[in-house]
Amino acid sequence: RWGRQEQALLWCVLVSAWGAASGQLRYSVPEEMPKGSFVGDVAKDLRMQLSAFREGGVRILDRGRTQYFSLNGQTGHLLTAERIDREQQCENLEQCVMVCEVIVEGEMQIHGIEVEITDINDNTPSFGRTEIELRMSETTAPGTRFPLREAQDPDIGANSVQSYKLSGEHFSLDVQEGPGGDRHPDLVVAKALDREEAAFHELVLRASDGGDPTRTGTVRIRVAVLDANDNAPVFSRSEYNVRVPEDLPVGSVLVTLTATDADEGINGHVKYSFHRLSQRASEIFHLDAETGEISLKDELDFEKRSAHELEVNAHDGGELFDTAKVTITVTDVNDNVPEMTLSSVLRSIKENALSGTVVALLHVQDRDSGTNGEVRCSLDGGLPFRLEKSFKDYYRVVTSQELDREAVSEYNVTVRAQDGGSPALWSSAVLALRVLDVNDNAPVFAEERYSARVSENNAAGALVLTVRATDADWGQNARVRYRLWEGRVRGAPLSSFVSVQAETGALYALRSFDYEEVRELVLWVGAEDGGAPALSSNVSVRVVIVDENDNAPQVLYPPAAAGPAAGSFGGGGAPGGVWGWSGVELAPRSAEPGSLPSVSLTRWLVVAVASVSCLFVAFLLLLLALRLRRWRRSQLPASDIGALRGVPVSHFVGLDGVRAFLQSYSQEVSLTADSRKSQLRLSGGSCCDTLPARPLPDEPVPLLGAD
């Protein structure tokens, strides 16, 4: 056989195993312990670091009721927060278990804790009064039983009433044990009563509990012996069972008891009274002494107590009585709306939070029973969230996908709880959740590429153009700054030509551009946001320099005459410069000395190149080509044409080609502007060394092409 120590050890092992298997912590503490008493080591049993407790990341959930337990943030111990009276918390319950939940904030995890409040012998048995008076007829036969008022002891088990003891003559005590373990004392007539011998009998009834030390309560019983009265009241039934809904209105009649007495007159008049009644029952039920009606004087509440047991006496004028038992069963009505409590909730969440991130932890309960107490929770559709069952009546609201702040920056998530009653009752709670920005968007330029035209000779500091980029993020992540990617232009840093304003994206010229030096600038501008790490993008910018007529033409050949004696072409110059010129006319080798190659001044070709633009140079070359073509066909003999045939066109293209042509095949001619007379001087050299003669083909080949 197991001893007490072995049994206690086995009990502890079983409790520990049960707690580990159920995922809960279970502790035991006696009632009436002082505030701050140790209950259990939560940190150790949950295998958690003390730092989590010290930082406030672990706490007892508050459901809006009195908190009887607290957590020590330094030790992780569970302590009593109030003195606990077991009889007050668990009236009429064999086992008193108080439940609390611990939440780990960072993880939004719930750990249940069950604390069994063990009974101590802190209550004395009480009969509710100091004296009981009974009236009996002297003709009462020995063995007749009279139920006595039971002693009440809120304690349980061994600390409750264990025994009764009666002192006195003519009577004995018989204790009957009910199905629930209750002990009911009955007074039994042991000897025949004789009023002439003794009109009254004084008895003392003692009730003792099994605590250590034992507590005892007493009541005096005074029995009055009356003259002969043959009949006592008799109830129509010994037990009455009534079922009523909890929402029955106050004042309603629950049951009517009926007892009859065969006697006549005062001895046959029956009155009713409660014989055994709890404190709470006395506040709820009313008994009409004349009619035997039991009615409501306060509301019933199934959730507080589902059944009430009463004992009623019917006694006549001779104080003879009968006792009946009344059991009132309260049925549940769907009168409680599901209660929803937000235990922990996030007010904001990053948009890149992983799917399954917990945003809220809520507790749902319905104090009704059965189908009326079954609660179904749901979320509004179309939102990236879902509900998960967490622990017992706890639910978690988690993300079902990654969020996008740029699409939706704030959510109002409605959680609805509905019971299974008919009609169903429901409640709801709204979670306001703000989505925090993450730097997941790079700046985007308004255009794929930018271009601008700037006239040369611009002022330094002139605005060229403005680039603009936007960032879909928010706050610092959306703040865009611009910068110029470094490069080189004709050996000089690009930053010496242009600059970009970091805040506005405005591109400014740092110098006066010269078309003849730089025709265009191709550069890259970058836009970078303020995130960490920063995101950036680039765009190309093309700046075209527009030419202006800011250069005079320059005569390339022959060298310009010194001083103003050179005169001007046609008697006047072009705007923007003074012409220096020398007439050059191509003449056949067979020309006689002293003859003019042309009689018209318009046939003179002035070879001059302006540095103004390529178009002007091309125009001069075109005139030269046309002049040569006409002259070749009409003036040059076949032998001279043969000298040009086979020369590549590229020899006459560009300034270098013109110089080569003029130096290799030319005659110098001067013209005095005042006398309009010509003086011809033939050059001493010939062109035969630079333009080799070749056989004339059947068909002439154009010198510079068909045009």
Could you please describe the fold and organization of this structure?
- The protein is mainly beta and 707 residues long.
- It has 5 domains: 18-118, Cadherins (Immunoglobulin-like, Sandwich); 131-226, Cadherins (Immunoglobulin-like, Sandwich), CATH 2.60.40; 234-331, Immunoglobulin-like (Sandwich); 339-436, Cadherins (Immunoglobulin-like, Sandwich), CATH 2.60.40; 444-546, Cadherins (Immunoglobulin-like, Sandwich), CATH 2.60.40.60.
- It has 8 helices and 46 strands.
- The strands form 15 sheets. A 4-stranded mixed sheet has the order 1-7-6-3. The protein has a 4-stranded mixed sheet with strand order 8-14-13-10, with no helix packed on it. A 4-stranded mixed sheet has the order 16-23-22-19, with no helix packed on it.
- β11 and β12 form a beta hairpin.
Q: Any idea what the CATH superfamily of the largest domain is called? A: Cadherins
Strand content: 35-45%
Q: Count up the helices.
A: 8
Shape: rod-shaped
CATH topology of the largest domain: Immunoglobulin-like
The level 1 CATH classification of the largest domain is Mainly Beta
Order of strands, widest sheet? 1-7-6-3
Mean pLDDT over the full residue set:
80
Subunit organisation of the chains:
single chain
Helix % is 10-25%
Task: Report on the biggest sheet.
Answer: 4 strands, mixed
Q: Per CATH, which architecture of the largest domain?
A: Sandwich
Radius of gyration: 60 Å
Give the end-to-end Cα distance, rounded to a whole number of Å. Answer: 131 Å
Look at the helices and sheets and give the structural class.
Answer: mainly beta
Q: List low-pLDDT spans.
A: 4-22, 563-583, 598-613, 640-644, 665-707
Domains (count): 5
**How many strand segments?**
46
